């Protein structure tokens, strides 16, 4: 169920509703919710992301009033094309790579390209979601960067509206998931200094309301506004509220003021699905007191924001009901290996290694597909789960995502979804599931499931692994894990048959690997 917008004024002018509004970052956490919320109001939307393939798999992608566009904010030509004919644009993209030295420069460059394209397209309005700037001098690099983007967009002939928020809370948001996993998993936790710093979180539904409410408000043009919920609160208090709403005992927090943000990010990365690269800017931002300095926005978009307790209650409900529309891990570009493209494999550097096993099951293809597409996350990997968990721990220690990201929904997947330490690269219902490894591995790895119906109650299920090793280390990795692959592959196919309660007609058996099958993907 899409996020329900608050009861706010919205234009009913047919001319405005028919002129597209550009939503950048449309596969991200906020953009992926704003696009359908605008569509629900009757607004024509042009959704922009770096991957059209990811966009096309969003549940709202085939709405009659949506247009899909692929582009890069650093490329002026693609941004100028995306803005052609639009009346306004939302800027919902920013770097959350706190460990990258050049993230601020990248953000500045993207904002300048966006500003130039907006001026050339003669947009009526640009709306940017940034971060609240604290009054103190020692401000995190992440918040400084977002403020720089705001200043660049405001310095334009196109009127801009800047909304500045602290933590955005909602099912699937990075801040909420960090709280959820810390409290769920740690009855006793170390409390760094930043968990006692005050902030003014806001529900994601309220963010959407403000984003939509300022679109056609002339008094919002050329102005910046702080947006937040009614509560000024610390992370320590957020932990207590979450524990109570989740039915858990109050957590014991042991003060540890010497724990630096960098060490905290690794601690958070080990306990939660949030990687240190994302955890560091979150934690450094949490070290600053980010509280609204004014409430002028409420005169323009009048409604009562949700309390933190109600926000957490609703987020928990969505999480338990598996109705999370977007997740922090959705964002990012699909980067398939070059050798996936037709004619590129094998290429100079070595052949693609792999193996494939198939099984013929006495079951209809849709029933088999339901189990294939449900693999991973809390459902497990059907065979050798101890080995999968061990691989996840080793990956976390090496700086990878491990298995803690899980999956957005226990039964549904879409292209671009994170699936433990995999990413969904291609998905065709009842035909194919292709996963790209994002684990730390000396090479490029793919895991593919293909289904071939052979009559109404017979299906051939094939599981294929492809691996392009990097150097001798990659070759050593492949051959050292090869026996485990054989065990897990056969076991996975057998386990799917067992879960289906379906007879195995043939297999599991080794089968010829179709090296060219990956060229079926359109990028």
TrEMBL record:
Alphabetized Gene3D superfamilies for the sequence: 3.30.530.20, NAD(P)-binding Rossmann-like Domain (3.40.50.720)
CDD domains from the UniProt entry: SDR_a2
SUPFAM superfamilies the UniProt entry points to: Bet v1-like, NAD(P)-binding Rossmann-fold domains
Entries under InterPro entries matching the protein: DUF2867, NAD(P)-bd_dom, NAD(P)-bd_dom_sf, NAD(P)-dependent_oxidoreduct, START-like_dom_sf
GO cellular-component term (any): cytoplasm
Record-annotated NAD(P)-binding domain positions: 25-165
Example of a GO MF term: aldehyde dehydrogenase (NAD+) activity
Pfam families, sorted: DUF2867, NAD_binding_10
Name the UniProt record assigns to this protein: DUF2867 domain-containing protein
